[in-house]
Specification:
Strand content: 25-35%
CATH architecture of one domain: 4-Layer Sandwich
Order of helices and strands: EEEEHHEEEEHHEEHHHE
CATH topology of one domain: Phosphatase 2c, domain 1
Structural class: alpha+beta
Number of strands: 11
Strand order of the largest sheet: 1-2-11-10-7-8
Shape: globular
Radius of gyration: 17 Å
Distance between the termini: 26 Å
Largest sheet: 6 strands, antiparallel
CATH superfamily of one domain: PPM-type phosphatase domain
Number of helices: 7
Length: about 250
């Protein structure tokens, strides 16, 4: 741990599937903006399952949404698209019901990695603006899409990426858990190859730690999660930040 930096508790697991060994590490920090952590991290003790969620705002609705969505998804998620869509649909229902009881904004992102113990593949689930990156052969790729107006604006050239309009659009999510229209998540299947490194993270990490730094840390990754979270704090800690790294051996 770097002196003067918020203490990071890292959760570590090793799991076997179809001749592959998965090494999982995850952690989260509060940062300086919020009085508490409204991110939720789940690193499963038994299954090759990792979930991150990021509550919207700093109120009770944010806390309830993240916890409810992750618990609901973990209860139902399995390594098949039908099961994953059903898990997200149930999370949507529970968070939406919680929002009606609370009478305030109740929503969160949800991003998950669900490996299949019988094959060399994994499923990625994405709704909101948390992210999944993959380092393969020295190349870091962003595998997910941010469901925000900022993403659409950048792709379509509506405004410069670093403009005031783009900054405001980052807070306009088009899909999230708790949305009144109950939108579906993106579900993507990937092949797990020895040497692959997957990073799941909330926007508090992705927006504070540059792409080049992500690639650098994941390449040597001895204490990658702790280093990345410390980097987010050194950058100002302007948001809760959560990271989980899955290495394939």
């Amino acid at each position: 741990m770097i002196a003067g930096i918020e203490r990071v508790e890292i959760r570590r697991r090793e799991l076997m599937l179809a001749g592959r060994r998965l090494v999982v590490a995850g952690g989260s920090v509060v940062g300086s903006r919020y009085p508490a952590n409204f991110d939720v991290l789940h690193v499963d003790d038994v299954r090759p399952l990792v979930v991150v969620a990021d509550g919207m705002g700093g109120g009770e609705g944010s806390r309830v949404a993240g916890r409810t969505a992750v618990d609901s998804f973990v209860d139902l998620a399995g390594p098949a698209p039908q099961a994953l869509h059903a898990a997200v649909a149930e999370a949507q229902r529970r968070v939406h019901d919680a929002g009606r009881r609370l009478g305030e904004l109740t929503g969160c992102t949800l991003t998950a990695f669900v490996a299949d113990i019988d094959t060399d593949t994994a499923w990625l689930v994405q709704i909101g603006d948390s992210r999944v990156y993959r380092l393969r052969g020295g190349q870091l790729e962003l595998l997910t899409v941010d469901h925000t107006m900022a993403w659409l604006g950048a792709v379509n050239g509506w405004y410069p990426f670093d403009s005031r309009e783009a900054h405001a659009a980052r807070y306009r999510l088009m899909r999230f858990v708790g949305h009144p229209e109950l939108p579906e998540a993106d579900v993507l299947n990937v092949t797990l190859r020895p040497g692959d490194v997957y990073l799941l993270c909330t926007d508090g990490l992705a927006e504070q730690v540059p792409y080049e730094r992500l690639a650098e840390v994941l390449t040597w990754r001895a204490d990658g999660v702790e280093t990345l979270l410390a980097d987010s704090l050194l950058a100002g800690g302007h948001d809760n930040a959560t990271a989980a790294v899955v290495s394939v051996h």
